[in-house]
Amino acid sequence: MNVFSYRPAPEDLSYTFGGRPAVARIAPGSIVETYTEDCFGGLVTSVGDLPSRVCEFPYLNPVTGPFHVEGAEPGDTLALHFVSIEPARDWAVSATFPHFGALTGTHTTAMLTPPLEELVWRYDIDTAAGVVRYHARRSDFTVELPLDPMHGTVGVAPAASEARMTITPDAHGGNMDTPELRAGVTVYLGVNVEGGLFAIGDGHARQGHGEVCGTAVEAAMNTVVAVELIKGVSTPWPRLEDDGHLMSTGSARPLEDAYRISQHDLVTWTSELTGLDPLDAYQLVSQIGEAPVGNVCDTNYTMVAKLPKSTLGRPDVYESAHDRLRALGRRYLAER
Amino acid sequence: MNVFSYRPAPEDLSYTFGGRPAVARIAPGSIVETYTEDCFGGLVTSVGDLPSRVCEFPYLNPVTGPFHVEGAEPGDTLALHFVSIEPARDWAVSATFPHFGALTGTHTTAMLTPPLEELVWRYDIDTAAGVVRYHARRSDFTVELPLDPMHGTVGVAPAASEARMTITPDAHGGNMDTPELRAGVTVYLGVNVEGGLFAIGDGHARQGHGEVCGTAVEAAMNTVVAVELIKGVSTPWPRLEDDGHLMSTGSARPLEDAYRISQHDLVTWTSELTGLDPLDAYQLVSQIGEAPVGNVCDTNYTMVAKLPKSTLGRPDVYESAHDRLRALGRRYLAER
Amino acid sequence: MNVFSYRPAPEDLSYTFGGRPAVARIAPGSIVETYTEDCFGGLVTSVGDLPSRVCEFPYLNPVTGPFHVEGAEPGDTLALHFVSIEPARDWAVSATFPHFGALTGTHTTAMLTPPLEELVWRYDIDTAAGVVRYHARRSDFTVELPLDPMHGTVGVAPAASEARMTITPDAHGGNMDTPELRAGVTVYLGVNVEGGLFAIGDGHARQGHGEVCGTAVEAAMNTVVAVELIKGVSTPWPRLEDDGHLMSTGSARPLEDAYRISQHDLVTWTSELTGLDPLDAYQLVSQIGEAPVGNVCDTNYTMVAKLPKSTLGRPDVYESAHDRLRALGRRYLAER
Amino acid sequence: MNVFSYRPAPEDLSYTFGGRPAVARIAPGSIVETYTEDCFGGLVTSVGDLPSRVCEFPYLNPVTGPFHVEGAEPGDTLALHFVSIEPARDWAVSATFPHFGALTGTHTTAMLTPPLEELVWRYDIDTAAGVVRYHARRSDFTVELPLDPMHGTVGVAPAASEARMTITPDAHGGNMDTPELRAGVTVYLGVNVEGGLFAIGDGHARQGHGEVCGTAVEAAMNTVVAVELIKGVSTPWPRLEDDGHLMSTGSARPLEDAYRISQHDLVTWTSELTGLDPLDAYQLVSQIGEAPVGNVCDTNYTMVAKLPKSTLGRPDVYESAHDRLRALGRRYLAER
């Protein structure tokens, strides 16, 4: 088993997809063990640390990477299987912002109303018990919520020589902020540049649908990813696969366009996998498809379109990359 | 037990919320047994029955009612508990349309491209087995999907002397098309006119999130509703409650506004039920809230914001109307 | 010349399109002299009259009418030519609102931020000089702006037995709030019910593009309209014609859909009037069309698509109704 | 007078804002004479040259530059005055596209309908007569339209180390496609990186509001720009000034957000220039502001908010940069 361990120093973190040289080269079939900082760069450690004071734009939402996958060329697809995502600290933080989140004016949904108050919450993480604990700021109310670790941000270098802030989700991936991106899931990303140049970050101990206040339970993570390269197969928008489901994503504004992209891709993909006529696939997805919301707060919004594989008779997907990576991941965990 | 049975003749069906006299008066605390036609008025019975030929605008999406609830006045809330929703036939139908659905141009998302093909699918319903069977139109592919009956349309007469097509969801309810509206669920609707004037229709044997092609598995239903009136309590947008969850809805365009309305209402409602500061409630909903998509095809789009009641310590909701109606419904079913 | 004078008492005003009986019957070819109250029902007379205190929902944006046009049937088109629009008082008012306008959260763009302040401005109208005078509320700044009277609201009863608040613009017309609706303009409205049932209101002494704060320079008006009926010609969305231009409107959300509707209608109309292939018409409109913004604050937003008639070789439009009504209006003014 | 002439070779053209070294260094106060290719890179020369065949993604919409302005630092503002914009050829072209334009499905407004037909139009340019001639493709119809040269694309390197395709408009400028960007206009752009790194391209012989089909009358241009640097003054979104008007721009989706940004900036700017309270400025802009549509087809949509300077008592704007550059431009033209 080819295992590569990488822990970035603060100055190694990246704030864009594209426009940065690789931090390492990875052979397809490898396991990558790494660490990701939280979206605040670890600078918000208590309810007194207001992001507007301790963080500096644009040094937000750092990602670890990019990693160059040997042999990856435009038109190929990277398969990144998340073997494990484990909180690196026993606490996490979240915040509201004056101009960020779905229920406040922002720099683009520009308003003349007074801004929202900036406020920080600190959560306790109990990995053994599998819970995070919420504490209200203005009363004694406290409650345990299920721990459900995920990565908000995963992506590759964009096409067309672009470099995009890590906070933006688009066809290259990025800050999709979907709770579906858990351990056990394989993410498929179309390669736009030599080496693909993938990076990951923005761990969440858990997140609601839409990340309505603008941040999740933000946590540093120790994460293990198994990497494959699928040659000669392109992928228009990031796709996810777990043991039971296929998922397409779309990131755009307005939110209905994110929905359209994700559903269109799932319909098209279904048609390709099964040989169904596109209208037959449209009908089938209409009745059995789910649409878990990713984010409704970032510079693009993200929707996921999700289908049980059993509906399609368990078709062969990306040359069975998920099954292979799942097995590799289990072997890794057993041997660790 | 006060049980009222009502089966509409075709000429009794209604195509608007508002603008119509009541078909019957109901005392609070009653059970209503009734029948709803499918969204095509039962006129599409085979794949050869194109809606554009057998249906006539605006005679689409008929609802049964409206029912006058005695004592209901503006500022009150109706609680409608869906005791049972059972397919009235062993088949159902669905269709694509030239100018309706999320992945085609419409009369408002106006396009110069050729329209989508109109095509009909007929499903078999096996109530005993709890499945509906999909048959592809252009291949032999067929698959069983779980039966999951629901009502796409429920609402009251709108405020401000409006009458709205039943296809439109808004603050009065209407065609929300959320799969969350199953048997076992209580719907809360704010009363705008004397008697409230509720009506229901548009049964679906099942539906995907967003109803992407524009129609679900459309079915006539035998439905039983238990009715309560909550005096002096207003409800800004339709809310739902089941044994485990609270849900707020929002219906608007663009889709992010439907999301905003539903999340804003759930945050506000959470704050009221628990005494949490609104920002504390915002933070909590952000981390534990779900956002099941209703429809992304109707004249307004619908989103649902959903929270486990356990998170809030099982607060007292609408004077425990759901628990009471749930018990009444179970008694009715046991005695039937 | 058939001249009909009608001045409504306050209790005669209407707050919906549809759902109301006609106040009078008009023969095609007639002139209607009438009076319209301002959007506040005349209740805001000074900067101390906050709308939230002196007005009562839903008694806002009253319209005068509806008028039954003899012989009008579904599928016909009403041509309403605005002969003159004259301020009925030497003052007008405007306001900001806590939850209305483009730069504040609203009931659908729901926000948790504090609402916008409610504030009233009173303008002086000098009809002889052709100006309105703005006075700042919080400084001595004052400036004269050109008087440019228009009607924000004109429409007919909607299709499908709907009744809509007068504040909503849609395919039936309504509160489009376009400054293009001046004296000298003919409005074409598709007839949905017997008699058409047109009504007008919401006079503005002038208005910026988009009515960004939610209200214009709101004024009561003495208005004269010349009416024709065009039999057997349908009109999908309200259209306008002046001596130099053809205009199509679209009202929807998001704003790009209002743009799409208006441009699609102008392209289609251009193709019909000239025999141009639709793609040739699309290209031509792309290069010479204007797109004056109507409103970006109402329950639907309104865009106008505008083309110089000279570009099309002055085609015959609606059987030359505008030219005929223009001449009738001039004769009326000369004889008055 | 410091005049710098620069004519790019094809390999010198740039396809991003950001991510590219400067082609030249310019001292503030200089005149730049240059050449810009059309959006097709000059490869579409007849109606037989379909862009999908002769052009290659992402080599579309080339810009000339970037130019490093000496002394420019983040927080400063560049003032670019367009002295003259003259078509470099006696023809221009336009096209419809299968997945681009406001009235067709696109990669983000994803549809299952058949795509729009790709078709090219070639226009004659008669600079002396001041007209462009349209020729229908599918009939003999032809008409002269006023020549009104402008640049669709002008911008600087974005903030946050981003590189963006030239087709995207955003806070850094880019492909705003507003017909207001004519000769005689000064554009103000906030500086994000050392030297500012401005570039220009995408000349249009003329354009309608919204560029509805996706392209204007696309033309190579000989363009002269006068450049100033305003130290220590930042500019949040591109602004324009001509002899009579101030203009703010906003680029976003949905279109109402582009409107909100532009109006919010104009209100804020008005308040700063005049000392008016923000609500007083909001009211004034609401009644006298225009909102010319830029584009409703690009990856972000663009709106312009426009105000007559006379309304504000001709305030001092950007240290009178426009007046100074206007005078410099006139001197240059007189001496040429």
UniProtKB/TrEMBL annotation, chains A, B, C, D:
InterPro entries named in the record: FmdA_AmdA
A Pfam match: FmdA_AmdA
Protein name: Acetamidase/formamidase family protein
Organism: Streptosporangium vulgare
